[in-house]
Amino acid sequence: MFANDKNIDNLQQLLAELKKYAELQKDYVKLHLVEKLTILISTLILVFILLILGIIALFY
After folding, report:
1. Burial tier of 33 (Cβ tally within 10 Å: 0-12, 13-18, 19+)
2. Digit-coded pLDDT (tens) for 34-46
3. Which is nearest to 29 in space by CA: 18, 39, 37, 19?
4. Concatenated DSSP letters of the chain
5. How far is it, in rounded angstroms, from Cα 52 to Cα 60?
6. TM segments (predicted)?
């Protein structure tokens, strides 16, 4: 009987750890997405600024 209770406790602990792991993976994916979007947006802003400066230089 004690072994069965211990197995149930182990399964509950395993499920809790799996939930925690899934939550951490979800947070990691969000963080990774924000990182990639930040790089993309900053690159687009830099290209836009260089394009504007190039157009100004051509007309000057």
Report:
1. exposed
2. 999 999 999 999 9
3. 37
4. -HHHHHHHHHHHHHHHHHHHHHHHHHHHHHHHHHHHHHHHHHHHHHHHHHHHHHHHHHH-
5. 12
6. 37-59
